[in-house]
Amino acid sequence: MALRSKSKPRSSESELTAAHELDFANSKEDQAYARATTANSRRASKRAWDWYKQLGEVHYAISRSARIAGYAKLMCVRYGDDGLIEDVVDDGPAAEHVSNIYSPFGGTRGLIERFYTLMKIPGDSYLTEVRDEGDPVSDGYHFLSPDELDLRSFSRWRPQRGKIRWITAPATSDMNVFLREIDPDDLLGRVWVPDKQWVDLTDSALQSLDTECEALFLLTKTIKAKLMSRFATAGIFFIPDGMSTARISGHQEQVAGQTIDNTMNFIIATMQRNLRNWEDASAWQPILLKGPPDQGEKLRHIVMDREVFETDMHLRGELIGRIMQGLDSNADTTQGVGDKSHFAAWAASDEERRVAVQPDLESMCFSLTRLVLHRKMLADGTSEEEIARHGIWYDLSESAVRGNQQEDARQGNDRGLVSNKATRRAIGFTEPDAMVGDEFVRWTGRQVKNPYLMTYGLPEHKKIDWEMVKEVQSGGGPAADSPADDPEAGPGTDSGSPDSGESDTPRANRPV
User: Fold this and answer.
1) If we measure between CA atoms, which residue out of 194, 189, 140 comes closest to residue 4?
2) Which ranges in 91-180 belong to alpha helices (H)?
3) Selection from 389, 223, 249 nearest residue 312 by Cα
4) Same domain, yes or no, for 187 and 56?
5) One domain for residues 68 and 181
6) How many whole angstroms separate alpha carbon 22 and alpha carbon 368?
7) Burial classification of residue 319, based on how many CB atoms lie within 10 Å of its CB (0-12 exposed, 13-18 middle, 19 or more buried)
8) Using CB atoms within 10 A of its CB, is residue 465 exposed (0-12), middle (13-18) or buried (19+)?
9) Of 360, 375, 399, which closes a domain?
10) pLDDT at 105
11) Does 24 reside within a domain?
């Protein structure tokens, strides 16, 4: 934990997680700490993982926000004396360390989405550097869930430099457990949301919603059972006794004291055939019966009362709303905005980024700064003062939805804010579509209304007598040898025309 205590962490007022550096190779205290915390996290998050996998609404709310967070681009920044970002570091060792922060399981997006998901479900994770066994070059980083770590091989009474087992797939009835080994030096540390009562325990959003998730799960199963029940959905088809006179063949028989009704058997067999061959046009053929005329009107289809469904669906919607609120997810973005305007939809999406996504991204940047960037810079021999001025930050601008990006690109190009290349990309064109050579010269001629440039490079350009065009353009007015008097009206003077906008009537007396 030494790196964290060297200086005050940047953006400490918005910190949500704790980052604890672990030394598995030499510290028995860290080994004992990891064994205890992973056991507590596994026990506390078991049901939370069940709800995430079994409730589609919970899965969608968390994965949707994680995908929004995945748009973030990590960058190396330098802080000023006031603790604010002073500049973005594009080159040098520090920038190179940040560029190597990714996961072999999904790249940078996979790393960010993994972190966000773990902060919502178990509220706990372990950052490891990923490398193949015996390979000195690492292949990025990955956040591990406590369920994925097996630390039982470590001794309880002395430090032991062994291999940490990473469970990549649990054992089932038809396969063994899949494992990867982690060198103790590669397990960098623990990142978790501290519990408000016990700081080394975790506080996850989904664990506190256990009662609501269980109620939603049971209610969903109840509704499914009702939908699958033929008695409640299909109802009852009532056939009076008199219809039994319409026999297919033979007469009624008795087997084990029960009467075999050919009419009922015929109806059941016909219904089953229609259900099996629902795509066949013959399935729409009505069932034909024959019997006494007064019995036909007594055939009835009795449908059971279904008002209970409306109540169940209302309770289910209320539970989903409470769960979304507990997960810091905007209900409008996860359940739809209904008939709200586009501005309301954009406001809901912006609120989700600001309330649910950005705080966790800040926490991840804080953790990666302490456990990766500062550790690497310290190994490079950088001074502690210079280390404290560097950090990792994010750019989430690509997740913003702009209503009219094409018009914004045109306006930005006219004001010299964005390049022609960026404008073409925004309006959906590529670089081969750009105007080059003679075409650009002709476009310039149209802008300045110069006929010479407007026809430049065209076959007709050589056929035009440009000296004559020049004389026509420079002429204008009466001929030089004209005997007429010079016009009194000149440029910038009153022409005296009746259509002139000026009048001798005072403005106060003019009609409105």
Assistant:
1) 189
2) 93-99, 107-120
3) 223
4) yes
5) yes
6) 14
7) buried
8) exposed
9) 399
10) 92
11) yes
Which backbone phi and psi does 188 adopt, to 5 degrees?
Answer: -75, -40
Show which of 268, 302, 336 is a domain's final residue. 302
Distance CA 371, CA 128 (A): 10
What are residue 168's phi and psi, to 5 degrees? -95, -20
Structurally, how many domains does the chain consist of? 2
The set of residues, in sequence order, having a beta carbon less than 8 Å from that of 237 and lying 6+ positions away, is 267, 299, 300, 301, 302
Q: Is 377 exposed, middle or buried (0-12, 13-18, 19+ CB in 10 A)?
A: buried
How crowded is residue 257: how many other Cβ atoms within 10 Å of its Cβ?
A: 5
Helix (H, G, I), strand (E, B) or coil at 424: helix
Residues of the chain predicted below pLDDT 50: 1-15, 245-252
Is the CA virtual torsion 323, 325, 329, 335 positive or negative? positive
Alpha-carbon distance 377 to 384, whole Å? Answer: 9
Give the per-residue pLDDT at 512: 55
- 92 and 153, same domain (yes or no): yes
pLDDT digits (tens, 9 = 90+) for 457-487: 888 888 888 778 777 665 555 555 666 566 5
Tokens read off for 316: 């289910």
Q: 240 and 336: one domain?
A: no
Check residue 80 and give its pLDDT.
87
Which residues, other chains included, contact 320 with Cβ-Cβ below 8 Å and sequence gap of 6+?
57, 216, 331, 335
* pLDDT value for 345: 64
Note whether residue 166 is domain-resident. Answer: yes
β partners of residue 301: 237
| Nearest CA-CA partner of 51 in 231, 207, 170, 192 | 207
Nearest-10 crossing angle of helices 210-228, 28-54: 30
**CA angle (229, 233, 234) in 5-degree steps:** 105
- Residue owning tokens 């967070």: 69
Residues spanned by the domain of 295: 236-302
Same domain? 157 vs 113: yes
Of the candidates 97, 108, 16, 29, the one whose C-alpha atom is nearest the C-alpha of residue 69 is 108
Residue 250 token pair: 């033979």
C-alpha distances in Å from residue 495, one per residue of 170, 446, 499? 95, 31, 9
Q: What is the DSSP pairing of strand 187-192 with strand 124-129?
A: antiparallel
Backbone φ, ψ for residue 474 (5° rounding): -80, -10
Separation between Cα atoms, residue 392 and residue 397, nearest integer Å: 16
123, 11: one domain: yes
The reported pLDDT for the residue numbered 416 is 79
Q: How many residues does the chain have?
A: 512
In a domain, 340, yes or no: yes
Q: Are residues 375 and 295 in the same domain?
A: no
For residue 117, is it within any domain? yes
252 and 169 in a common domain? no
**pTM for the full model?**
0.68
Name the H helices within 167-299: 210-228, 230-233, 262-276, 293-296
